[in-house]
């Protein structure tokens, strides 16, 4: 049973991945400073409250736990916040990653799965986006991930660290049976905000309907968080089997407009979503859809959720359960 260190395992995507690791027969230990994650997302016996800046603590943890590989989620992820506080993003996302990689090197751990992002591509020239599209981030958040991917390429070359970067598109949905879902504070993501508008009656603002898309609203590739978790498992297995470093998009390959997601929420909840149309949000590309052929072909990954309605249904169930408890 391989011992896996999961940084940021108390967060949204991290906690779903820890759950799937356990189901898949792994024995994960979580390092999380709980600055954005939630204690209730992780079994207490697996949780070590530890900051990424604590290189010695991470090294010690990997040694004492006999860690064989690391899945590295711990990072800040709010694009808007990164524009207001770029130093915070570079220090936490880049500095924190470097501290982790140093600890790994000292502890002799040389397998890593890294949380990257579609924000790597900025405003892409071609959609669906292939992995060899240029890195052109338009926010400090995106840049922080590009820098870490670059560091990983050098560490592959000179340290023998094998790393797989997974470039996530729009993580969404929940695993209500596991008691896991999206709980950001403040919440900025579309699906939880649409569901909140239904629940509270407070209208959500649609950020622009004058884009050059069929209905004028932005198009995104919504990938269910459990399918994202599954991508980490196949990446980890490839690395543990001696496979090479690489970078993969993780998305369904299907784009949905904001209004299409709104309609899916209305179908699932059986209620109207109170909404208003507002101005565009700065930095929103009109369309981001993954070409995820490489992940399918190379690692044999397939998403189970391909319908936006089914993804929304899991998020709705989580919100209902959460409010009831
Ligand atoms: N949107 C609204 N109103 C809202 C919130 C969102 O209209 O109140 C729209 C946005 O303008 C966008 C779409 O819904 O068109 C999706 O927005 P999200 O904020 O849910 O997600 P983003 O696509 O902006 O961002 C996500 C991740 C980022 C990542 C980015 C890369 O949250 O971490 O994808 O593609 F960087």
The geometry reads as globular
Radius of gyration: 19 Å
- Report the structural category: alpha/beta
Bound molecules: uridine-5'-diphosphate-4-deoxy-4-fluoro-alpha-D-galactose
The total beta strand count reads: 14
Fraction in helix:
40-55%
Element-level helix/strand string: EHEEHEHHEHEEHEEEHEEHEEHH
Poorly predicted regions: none
Distance from N terminus to C terminus (CA atoms, Å) equals 34 Å
Write a compact overview of the structure shown.
This protein has 10 helices and 14 strands. With 325 residues, it is an alpha/beta fold.
Features:
3-stranded mixed β-sheet; Rossmann fold; UDP-galactose 4-epimerase, domain 1; single chain; 325 residues; alpha/beta; 10 helices
Describe this structure in words.
By secondary structure, the protein is an alpha/beta fold. Helix content is 41%, strand content 18%. It has 10 helices and 14 strands. The protein has a 7-stranded parallel sheet with strand order 3-2-1-4-5-6-11, sandwiched between helices. It starts with a strand and ends with a helix. The model has no long low-confidence stretch (mean pLDDT 97). The structure holds uridine-5'-diphosphate-4-deoxy-4-fluoro-alpha-D-galactose (UFG).
Write the layout of secondary structure elements.
Elements: E1 3-7, H1 12-23, E2 27-32, E3 47-49, H2 55-65, E4 69-72, H3 79-84, H4 86-107, E5 111-117, H5 140-159, E6 162-168, E7 170-172, H6 190-200, E8 204-207, E9 219-220, E10 222-224, H7 225-240, E11 246-250, E12 256-257, H8 258-269, E13 275-278, E14 287-288, H9 293-299, H10 308-324
Parallel strand pairs: 1-2, 1-4, 2-3, 4-5, 5-6, 6-11, 7-10, 8-13, 9-14
Antiparallel strand pairs: 9-12
Helix pairs in contact: 1-7, 2-4, 4-5, 6-8, 8-10
Uridine-5'-diphosphate-4-deoxy-4-fluoro-alpha-D-galactose binds next to helix 6 and strand 8.
């Amino acid at each position: 049973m391989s011992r896996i260190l999961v940084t940021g395992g108390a967060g949204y995507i991290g906690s779903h991945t820890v759950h799937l690791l356990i189901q898949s027969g792994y024995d994960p230990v979580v390092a999380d400073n709980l600055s954005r994650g939630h204690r209730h997302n992780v079994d207490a016996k697996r949780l070590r409250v530890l900051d990424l800046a604590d290189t010695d603590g991470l090294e010690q943890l990997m040694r004492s736990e006999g860690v064989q590989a690391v899945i590295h989620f711990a990072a800040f992820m709010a694009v808007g916040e990164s524009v207001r506080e770029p130093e915070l993003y570079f220090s936490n996302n880049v500095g924190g990653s470097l501290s982790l990689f140093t600890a790994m090197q000292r502890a002799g751990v040389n397998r890593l799965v890294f949380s990257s992002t579609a924000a790597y591509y900025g405003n892409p020239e071609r959609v669906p986006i292939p992995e060899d599209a240029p890195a052109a981030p338009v926010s400090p958040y995106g840049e922080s991930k590009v820098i870490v991917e670059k560091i990983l390429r050098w560490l592959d070359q000179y340290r023998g660290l094998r790393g797989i970067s997974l470039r996530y598109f729009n993580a969404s949905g929940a695993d209500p049976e596991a008691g896991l879902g999206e709980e950001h504070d403040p919440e900025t993501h579309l699906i939880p905000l649409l569901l909140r508008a239904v629940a509270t009656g407070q209208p959500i603002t649609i950020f622009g309907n004058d884009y050059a898309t069929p209905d004028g609203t932005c198009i995104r590739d919504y990938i269910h968080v459990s399918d994202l978790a599954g991508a980490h498992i196949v990446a980890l297995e490839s690395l543990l089997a001696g496979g090479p470093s690489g970078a993969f998009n993780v998305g369904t390959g299907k784009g949905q407009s904001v209004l299409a997601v709104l309609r899916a929420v209305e179908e699932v909840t059986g209620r109207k979503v109170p909404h208003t149309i507002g101005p565009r949000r700065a930095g929103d590309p009109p369309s981001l859809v993954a070409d995820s052929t490489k992940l399918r072909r190379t690692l044999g990954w397939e998403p189970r959720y391909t319908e936006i309605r089914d993804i929304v249904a899991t998020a709705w169930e989580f919100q209902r359960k959460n409010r009831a408890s």
